[in-house]
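Report of the visiting student (M.T.), summer placement. My assignment was to run the structure pipeline on a short list of targets and document each run. The first record concerns Protein translocase subunit SecD.
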Amino acid sequence: MKSLKYRIALVLLVLLGSIYVMFTKPVTLGLDLQGGTHLVLQIDVKKAIEDEVSTALREIKNKFEKENIPLLSAKREEKKIELVLLEKSSVQKAVELVKEDYGNMFDVKVEGEKLILTLKPSYISKEIDRLAEQALETIRNRIDELGVAEPVIVRNGKDRIIVELPGIKDPERAKKVIGKVAKLEFKEVVDTAQTPDELITKLGGTIPSGETVSVVPSPSGAKFYLLKDGKKEELKVNSLEELVKKFGGHVPEDNQILVQEIKDKSERVIGYQFFILKKEPILTGAYLKDAYPSTDEYGMPAVSFELNSEGARIFKDYTSKHIGVRLAIVLDNKVQSAPVIRSAIGGRGQITGQFSYQEAKDLSIVLRAGALPAPVKIIEETTVGPSLGKESIEKGIKAGVAGLIIVMLFMVAYYKLSGAIADLALLMNVAVLWAALALLGATLTLPGIAGFILTIGMAVDANVIIFERIREELRKGRNLYSAVEAGFSRAWGTIIDANVTTLVAAIVLFQFGTGPIKGFAVTLSLGILSSMFTAVFVTKVLLDVIVKYKSRIFSI
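After the run finished, the structure tokens were exported:
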């Protein structure tokens, strides 16, 4: 008697708690139900690792120079560095210096005066993982700044990230913000050129008489053409350094050429200005403390920034010693502006350029969130309209209600009062499952609704097994109380087997599935657990009440 009262109290507590949660905490709807954008991003790991090797090469050369280790040549080939020393006597010292700072990064092999540095497989594996985790965190920060409610941002494999943005109103803007590398650098300007001919000439190249090089903007970047005798021939070059070299010029090893885009009022690129810059940045976005949209002295949109204490110190030290020198503000390898340093600059500055207000705002977002460690590209995109999502919800609800009514009618018709008790447990199962989804912050997707409906069938399946066992015991001549006890006891093993195997399958789906598949797995898993409680525990409590107080109305 005492035990039954406690069990009834527990059932009522769970029921009332579930009803309260249902009406006070909404369930998060997935992308396919409320509309939005699904993106699969791929991280350019190869490019990032090659950049790291290039940086290592530059640092090693600087260190050798400080330690008076003369180099005959130094080159990088993808994941490998080859250093040829001028003197064989320096080999041992060179190896020790490399191993001291880069022993965890490179395997070092010596062939005479040559050092071959090869990236370690273990380092590459760790670096891929680091790049992916850093990209994941950066993208999450950017999306948080955009104000998207309940986004899904997860890794998929080694170098892919899945981003789901439910209810987003401007997917194009979101894609630009997410995919922008936002690598900010401040670099010293060595020289400038207005035309390709001027650039080539300044770097020691020669344009044949009667010929000229022109540049034409295109969606994929600048295209260069050689004009001669009224004919135009496209120059197949992959970089500005290659263009200069084609005409006999030479870009110093510590320099690089970048461009500044010139745009018209409609934001269309109509030309370029060429900058010869020091390759080594004075400062990078790593020292950025804050960034926010503002206006320049002419009232045009700009981005103001604030450096941390270390960045402010470096910036002030450099600018105080380089008054009169032009300083290029470079974003993703494009010059945004290149003002002349008029006085020492402390911890604050401004990035100007031909921005719209929205571009200035978005640039502030990506700078605050930090640069991506490697470029990312969108390899898959799916957009779901809100009307389609609304239609999916309506159809899903209709299917769920129809399934619930059919199952409940069958149970009453076939098992009479016991079937009605099972129906009450089933309704409670729906309430408990919905409350669990809301409390855990799980996202309900269209496949999740399918899992919800499947749970309804599985919940009464346990009751069917129990009721058939009870019938068997009654046919054997047992009294009602012992028949109910034996029915539940003998059905328990079968119910456990069926539900545990389904639960394992759901866990596997959740672990290895993505997006909608995970939604199905979450709903199915929670449904199995809630149906185990309602179909077995709640049904048993209700049957015990009937057997104890109203046994004469019992029917099965």
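Residues 255 and 279 are 5 Å apart (CA to CA). Residues 38-166 form one domain. I thank the supervising group for their guidance throughout the placement.
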